[in-house]
Specification:
The complex is a heterodimer of chains A (401) and B (367). With 401 residues, chain A is an alpha+beta fold. Chain A contains 13 helices and ten strands. In chain A, the strands form three sheets. A four-stranded mixed beta sheet of chain A has the order 1-4-5-8. In chain A, a hairpin with an 8-residue loop joins strand 6 and strand 7. The longest helix of chain A has 29 residues. Chain B is α+β, with helices and mostly antiparallel strands. In chain B, a hairpin with a 2-residue loop joins strand 2 and strand 3. In chain B, helix 7 packs antiparallel against helix 8. Classes of the chains: A alpha+beta (401), B alpha+beta (367). At the A-B interface, helix 9, helix 10, helix 11 and helix 13 of A face helix 7, strand 10, helix 8, helix 9 and helix 11 of B. Chain A: Its cofactor is FAD.
Chain lengths: 401, 367
């Protein structure tokens, strides 16, 4: 047994041992606040068991293992439906950035341990009402004066800001520079005076996203991460961290097997639904697509295991799998007739077709909209030119609004 | 499964050799002729030992398998391979190995390995790619009936034929050179892809040797169909990638409205989608080749075949579109891939056949 096999076995065994306390069934019917409390207990148990901060260096409270260890554990963890959503951003992006850019290493270690244990939560304050895919078009201002900085403006889509203790923030420090150059990166105390968090509901009823307002929020210069004007590079480094995230060829919707089982008892025109040519075509094509994505994922793991960098084709997963999930979920609802109209808010997207369907559009936006992913593939992999950008090189404050 | 260094080197060398020896003008000329193939391609295949790759060593082969043959097929697909013999030769090798008849193996395998013998595999009939009860009949050592649209049919020296018999379905080998003109007629099909050497083959008492009968024949037929489908999927993936790259290169070079057309999202996104289909097909091909002989091989082969059909169809369709007017000229040559995408989609069972086969594997329900 290799080291990785042993790791996987140990992960599987531990997850199975805590599933009754934290898994899907234990969480059924809980309110979000109750679920969060279960989540915090799960994070503490995970920390004690030695599965937290897998790629974070040991001296900062992590395990100091490879990205592959992380992907293997997180894949199993997602399959077990553990309550990790609240901590997904918190433990993924901000922590490595603090390690890299923050000088007070003792403080960083304290924050990391608290975040890994689920005691503290971090959010990522990037997107704004007028800056999503075009992140560098953001308008939140950071003005330097006296001891430190003053932040004014608004962030949007900030996941779980309503529970967050801290955040990492990118803001415009110099509007007279072209848009990518005038940005600076900070960490923020979410409980500081002038920070207002307003949760809002998504289309599926979930309350995960927030508007965050900054009104004259004072930030010390020691909270700056990276050089003044270097914020965009720090933000890019942040987004790169997630390139080793666990992926799912089913787009975090139900698998093809669930579609087949759903249809086993249904008929179309008096014949078994599974004998209908249209249904068979959908099953076969979606399965072939997802098998391909899964082979790409498994191959990437093998390449990582061999100590090499996986190919760029890993970028395809979200784009293709979520579209597949969206259409298959529509059809799964249609084929159930009136039963397909039922809806349980907050149901698990890998087990519930309505939850999968209504949540799919969110997945097609979050973490890179489909159109941005296509642009990235075209530009970074195929070497095609960037889109025409009229704001390129223009000082931010001279770009027509 | 990851390719090892040797396999990578082999793919590179194959690509280099084929790039040097493929002449598009020659391929275009073939389109206007029936019964002809690209001699240079076939000579290269024999000289490079591709014909021997998957033949066991004791019969003069290299004892490798679908993975290596798939790599060659992918490179052959990239240049619109000049002859269909590698895929069908492998089908014949599989059929012979299934028979386990030492005399037959010793007679045919060394010659297939050396490329002295070209094979056809004739399963399809009007009502399907693999009829369970073929209309072609086997009686008293002879075949009767017609197989339509047999690839390699015009050039093959031997054919593996599925036929009905009192013992159920049989897989039979016909030594085409030994059959008289009365016993065997081949009628050329003037096709949009003449290099595939399509023929209707009518057997009127041609002598045949049974390789397998009954359930064993059905099993062997399905397995060799799946193996050939995996090779073809590699070929389709290679063709799709070539089309994607040709369209990419053209989009970088061709300017309109003051910029390369590759800067327009309508073109960029189309190319990015093609890239996705190519990589998904490639991943399925590699997986399927590595699953040869395993319980889920048929499922993996169907996935490879379906995604490769989609990739090649989409890549040719969209590459031609991106090329604008030059995509539809004779000399531009993109239609070589367009034609090949279609012929390969039809050979070895179309997408509907493989969808049904895969759906049956996944659901347990027949169509």
């Amino acid at each position: 047994m290799t080291d990785l096999d042993a790791w996987q076995e140990r992960s599987r065994a531990w997850l199975a041992s805590v599933a009754p306390e934290f898994g899907r069934e234990a969480r059924a019917g809980l309110s979000q606040d109750e679920d969060l409390a279960v989540g915090r207990r799960y994070m503490a148990a995970k920390y004690d068991a030695g599965f937290s901060g897998i790629t974070i260096p040991v001296e900062f409270g992590g395990q100091g293992l490879s990205p592959l260890h992380k992907v293997l554990f997180e894949t199993l963890e997602a399959q077990a439906a553990m309550p990790i959503g609240y901590f997904g951003v918190s433990t993924a992006m901000p922590l490595p950035i603090l390690i890299r850019y923050c000088d007070d290493k003792d403080w960083v270690r304290e924050r990391i341990v608290a975040a890994l244990k689920g005691e503290e939560i971090w959010c990522q304050l990037f997107s704004e009402p007028a800056a999503g895919s075009d992140l560098a078009g953001l308008r939140t201002k950071a003005e330097q004066g006296g001891e430190g900085w003053t932040i004014n403006g608004q962030k949007l889509w900030t996941t779980f800001a309503q529970y967050s203790d801290y955040g990492i923030l990118i803001a415009r420090s110099d509007p007279a520079l072209p848009k990518h150059k005038g940005l600076t990166f900070f960490w923020i105390d979410m409980k500081a005076p002038g920070v207002t968090v307003r949760p809002f509901r998504l289309a599926n009823g979930d309350i995960q996203c927030n508007e965050v307002f900054f009104d004259d929020v004072a930030v010390a210069d020691s909270q700056r991460l990276g050089p003044v004007g270097g914020g965009f590079s720090v933000a890019m480094a942040t987004l790169m961290i997630e390139r080793y995230a666990a992926s799912d060829a089913d787009g975090f919707g139900p698998p093809i097997g669930a579609f087949v089982e759903l249809l086993r008892s249904h008929t179309i025109n008096g014949r078994p639904a599974l004998r209908d040519g249209r249904v068979r075509s959908v099953i076969a094509r979606n399965h072939a697509l997802r098998q391909g994505l899964d082979s790409i994922r498994r191959r990437a793991m093998l390449i990582m295991e061999a100590g090499q960098e996986p190919g760029p084709e890993g970028a395809l997963n979200k784009l293709f799998s979520v579209r597949s999930r969206q259409k298959l979920s529509e059809l799964a609802l249609d084929l159930q007739g009136s039963a397909g109209l039922a809806y349980t808010e907050g149901a698990y997207t890998k087990a519930d077709w309505a939850a999968s369907w209504i949540g799919a559009p969110t997945m097609r936006q979050a973490g890179g909209a489909d159109e941005m992913l296509l642009n990235t593939i075209a530009e970074k992999i195929l070497g095609l030119p960037q889109d025409h950008r009229p704001d390129k090189g223009v000082p931010f404050n001279q770009i027509p609004a | 499964m990851l390719y090892d260094e040797g396999q990578h080197a082999m793919a590179e060398e194959t690509r280099r050799v084929l790039a040097a020896r493929t002449d598009r003008t020659r391929l275009l000329e073939l389109l206007d002729r029936t019964g002809a193939w690209d001699e240079a391609f076939w000579a290269t295949a024999v000289e490079q030992g591709w014909t021997a790759l998957a033949v066991p060593e004791e019969f003069g082969g290299l004892g490798l398998g679908l993975i290596e043959l798939g790599l060659v097929a992918q490179e052959a697909g990239r240049v619109v391979s000049g002859a269909p013999f590698l895929t069908y030769g492998h089908g014949a090798v599989c059929a012979l190995l299934a028979s386990d008849d030492e005399d037959l193996l010793a007679t045919w395998l060394p010659r297939l390995a050396k490329g002295e013998v070209k094979a056809a595999v004739a399963f399809a009939e009007d009502d399907g790619a693999m009829p369970a009860a073929p209309s072609v009949e086997y009686r008293d050592g002879r075949l009767h009936g017609t197989k339509g649209g047999v690839a390699c049919g015009l050039a093959a020296d031997i054919a593996i034929v599925s036929a009905s018999s009192p013992d159920g379905m049989v897989l039979a080998l016909v030594d085409l050179g030994q059959a008289s003109g009365d016993e065997l007629q081949r009628r050329a099909i003037g096709s949009f892809d003449n290099g595939r050497l399509f023929a209707d083959m009518t057997f009127s008492g041609a002598p045949a040797t049974v390789l397998e009968a009954g359930d064993a024949a059905e099993e062997a037929a399905l397995d060799l169909q799946a193996q050939m489908a995996v090779l073809t999927a590699h070929e389709q993936t290679g063709g799709a990638e070539a089309m994607m790259l040709a369209a990419r290169d053209y989009a970088l070079e061709r300017k309109a409205f003051g910029q390369p057309i590759g800067a327009f999202q309508s073109v960029k996104h189309r190319l990015a989608e093609m890239y996705g289909l190519v990589e998904i097909a490639r991943a399925n091909c590699i997986h399927a080749a590595a699953r040869q002989g395993e319980g889920d091989f048929l499922e993996a082969a169907a996935c490879a075949r379906l995604s490769a059909i989609e990739a090649y169809d989409t890549a040719t369709r969209d590459a031609v579109q991106i090329h604008g007017g030059s995509g539809v000229t004779w000399d531009g040559g993109l239609h070589l891939h367009m034609r090949r995408a279609r012929s390969l989609a039809i050979e070895l069972g179309n997408a509907l056949f493989w969808e049904d086969l895969l759906a049956t594997e996944l659901t347990g329900e027949p169509a």
